[in-house]
Cytochrome P450 (Saccharopolyspora karakumensis), 417 residues
Amino acid sequence: MTEQPRCPIVHFDHHSAEHAADHVGAYRELREECPVAWTDAHGGFWVLSDYPSVFEASRDDDLFSSARSEHGGEGLAIIIPKAPTAFHIPIELDPPQFRSYRKAVNAVTSPAAVRRLTDVIDKFVTGFIDEIIETGEADLAFVAGVPAAVTVDWLGLDASEYKRYVDAMHTLVSAPPDSAEYAHARDVAVPWVEKTVRAHIAARREQPTDDATSAFLAAEVDDRKMTDDEIYSILELLISGGVGTTASLVTQALVWLYRNPGERQRLIDDPSMIDVAVEEFLRVFSPTQALARTVTRDAEFRGAHLRAGDRALMSWASANRDPRQFDDPDEVDITRWPNKHMAFGLGIHRCAGSHLGRAMARAMIGQVLERMPDYVVDVDGIVRYPDQGTNAGYHSIPCSFTPGKRRLASPLFPRAS
Ligand code: HEM
C-alpha cells in the first residue's frame, strides 16, 4: 500500500523571527487556509490551529499522547523541538498512570489551597512594587518576578533566589534554542536548580513543614509514598509552569492597558472588573502559545492522514482567536463573557496552576493600577522575547509614573551589601 503524503504542507516555524514578528497573523493565515497542516520545520510536525481541531486533539489522549518517547528526539515531550528538562510529572504521562499524580498536584493547587496563599501573594506583590515605587521610573517587567517568587516560596525554597529559577526554567522555553542564553540555562542554570531542589527535598524528608514540597512527601500515589525522583519531577514542572506564564500574561496586559487608557481607567474606577478582564487577557495574549503531542497510531484526523510517531503542535493562541468561537476575536473586550478560552489548555492536562495563576495576575494588575495609575510606557524601549513560539511576552518594559510610598516595613529580600 502506498503511504498517504502528509499534506497540506505549509511554511511554518513557531520559533522563527518571522513568526515572532507577527504570530497572530501567522496563525490567522493557517487557521483560514489549512487548520491541520504539516510543516517540515524541526524534523516535521502537524500544526493544529483552529478551535475545533485543538479542542478535539487535546481531549483525545488515546490518539494524541503526552508521554515522553523517542519520536522527535530526546527531552520534554510537550514542546517542539524538545527541551532538555527532567521528566515532568504529570504533564508527560497519559492515563491511567497520570491520574493519581494529578490528584496529588490538585491537592495543593485547588481553589481552597490558593485562597490560603492570598496573604503571601499580596505580600510579594506589595514588596515588588515597593522596590520601584519611590523612583518614579522602572522596568515594569521587574514586577513580573512576583509569580516566580510566589511559586518558589510556596514550594518552601528560598524566594530571594527567584531569578535563578527564571533564568533556568523560563529561558528553556522562551529563548531561541541556538542562543547563548539557552546554552547557559541548559548547562549551568538548570543543573543548579536540580541540585538545589533535590537538597530541599532531602531536607524536607528529614524535617517536614507546611510547604507544598512537604505535602508531596506526605501524599500517596497508588497507595504508596512517592520517591525523591518523582517529587523532583513534579517540582521542576511546577517551577517551570509557575515562573514565566503569569508574568507573560501580566506584562502583556499592562502594556495593552497603557495603550488603551479608557479601558485602564475603567479598571481603576471599578477594580471588581479585573477578574473578567483577566480572562480576556488570557484569551488574547495566550502566554503559553502552543504545546505538543505525539500521535500514537495511523489515523485520519479532520481530513489529515496522521502517522504513528508524528509530532503535533496544538496552538491554544490560535484557537483563542478563532472567529467561529469568538465574536470579533482580535478585539480585546475586557467585559467579554462567557469566554471559553483555551489559554490553560483543555482536557486532562488542563493547567493545574490556573487558580494560582489567576490569583497572582489579579493581584498584580490590581495593585499596579492602584499604586501606579498613571504609568507611561516607553513603547520604543520595550524588548520582546526574541522567540514567541512557546511563551509570548516581554523581557523589558521601561516606564515612568508618579512616585509613591513603600508599604512594607522592610524589603522582601535582604539587600546585597
Ligand atoms: C497565566 C498562567 C498560566 C498559563 C497560561 C498556563 C498554561 C498552561 C497550559 C496551556 C497547560 C496545558 C498543558 C498541556 O495540555 O500539555 C498547563 C499545564 C500545567 N500548568 Fe499551567 N499555566 C499557567 C500558570 C501555572 C502556574 C502558576 C502553575 C504552577 C505553579 C502551573 C502549573 C501547571 C502544571 C503542573 C500543568 C500540567 C498539568 C497536567 O499535566 O495535568 N501553571 N498550563
Summary: The chain is about 45% helix and 10% strand.
